[in-house]
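Deliverable D4.2, example record:
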Amino acid sequence: MSEQTILEKGVVGFPTALATAVGLIIASSVLLTATQGFGVGGGVFAAAIGISFVLMLFQVMVFSEAGTAMPLAGSVYDYINAGMGRFVAATGTIVAYLLVHLFAGTAETASIGLFAQVNFPFLESMPAERTWIIGVSLLVVFGVVNLLGIEVYGAFEVVLTAVMWTTITLFGIIGILKASTLQLDGFFGTSLVGNDLSAVLSMVGLAMFLFVGVEYVTPLAAELRDADRNLPRSMFLGLIAVAFAMFVYGAGITRQVPNEVLDPETGLSLFDTPLPIPAFGEAILGGFGRWWLAIAVLFAGAATLNTLLAGIPRILYGMAKDGTFPKVFAYLHPRYRTPVAGIVLAILLPGIYTIVIQGDIDSIFVLILAGVCAWLVAYVLVNISVMILRSIRPDLRRPYRMPLYPLPPILATIGMVVTLWFIAPPGLTRGAIYSRFFVMLAVSAVIAFVQVKVVSKLPLFDRPSPEELAAEEVGAV
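Output generated by the structure prediction step:
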C-alpha cells in the first residue's frame, strides 16, 4: 500500500501539541460561557471550575495512558474499540465528536461573528443576522490551512494560541491588581444561584465546557514527535494553563465591569452578552485595550476552529481505516497527506448551520449542553475501555501508566455521572437537555449500525486488538 495512504510520522513537536490543547478549549464561546458563569455564580462558579479541573486531571491521566499505548489518529474511537467493540466505539465517537461538532462548532463559528461585531467599532453597524459571514469566512480559511498539512496547521495554532492565552491572562491579572470599580462580595463576586453544594453542582456542567476537548491532542499522536512524552505533557500543562487563565479572567472582569441588568422583564444582564469583553478591554488599557482584547478573542475563535478542523478529520480517518465510517474519509491528499473528506465535512457541518441560525446562538445553547452530555459519556466509555484493557492486556506497552490505578478512571467516571445529573444550570431543565442528547445518541447508533453491520459487514461487538488497529492505520492489513 502506498505511503500516501498513511499520515506522515513525527512532523510536529511539543509546541503544536500544547497549542492544540489550549487553543481548542479557550474559544469565543467558552469566554462567553465563563463570563455568564461568573456573572450569575461568582464564587460558586469558581468552585465549580475547581471541581471540573480536578475531574479533568483524572481524565487526562486516562487519556495519557490510552494515547501513549495506542498513538493512533483514531484516538477516542480506537481506545473504545479495543475495549468495548466497534459498535460502541462508533456510536460514542459519532455522538461525542461529529454531532457535537455540529452544535459546538456552530456556536463557535457564530460567536466569532457576534464577538467581532461588538469588539471592533467598524463592524458595529453590521446586522447580527449577517455576522455569520465573519465566522464562516474564518472557517473556510482554516479549512484551507488544514488542507495544506499538519505543519502549516501547527505554525498557525502556536501563534494564535500564544497571543490569545497571553492576552487573556495578562488582562485578567491587571484586572485583579487594578483598583476595583465596584464592591465585590468575595474574590469572584456574589452568587445569584445560592451558595450550597447543590448550587455548586448545578454549575459544574457549565464549568466542564471550559475544559472538555483537551484530548484533541490525541488524534495528532501519529504525527507527533516523541508522543510518549509530549502527549501527556501537553494535556496536563494545557489543562493547567486553561484553568489559570479562566480564574484570573473571571476575577479580573468581575472587578472591572459591573454586571448591569439590561432588561428587567427578562432578567438579561450585561454578562449574558458579548458586551463585557470590549468594556473589559477599555477598563484595562482604554481604547488600545479594547482593540488588543478584540484581536485576542478573534484569535481564540480562530485557534478553536483550526483545532477542530485538525482533530475531527483524523478521528474520522481512523474510523474509516477500520471500516466503521465511509472509506472516502481514509483518503489523504497525495501531496499534503491530509484527510481531505474529513476536513470538508468539518467545514460544512458548522458552516451551513451557522448560516441557518444567522447569529442566534441562543437557539443552540441547550444543544451545546446536550453535546457536553455526549462528551462526558464518551469519556466514561474511554475510562471503562482503559480498565478493560488493563485487565485483558496487562502486557500492552504503556509508556505512561497512570498513578494510583484504578482510582483515576473510577473517580473521573463518578464525577462525570454526577455532572450529567446536574447538567442543567439555573433556568434550564434536565429533560430539555436529555431529550436532545438521546436523540443525538439514537441517530449516532443508527449510523454506526448501518456502517458497521450493513455496509462493512463487521461484527458489531468484535474487539480488534491495539496491534490490529495500528496495522490498519499504517496500511499493513
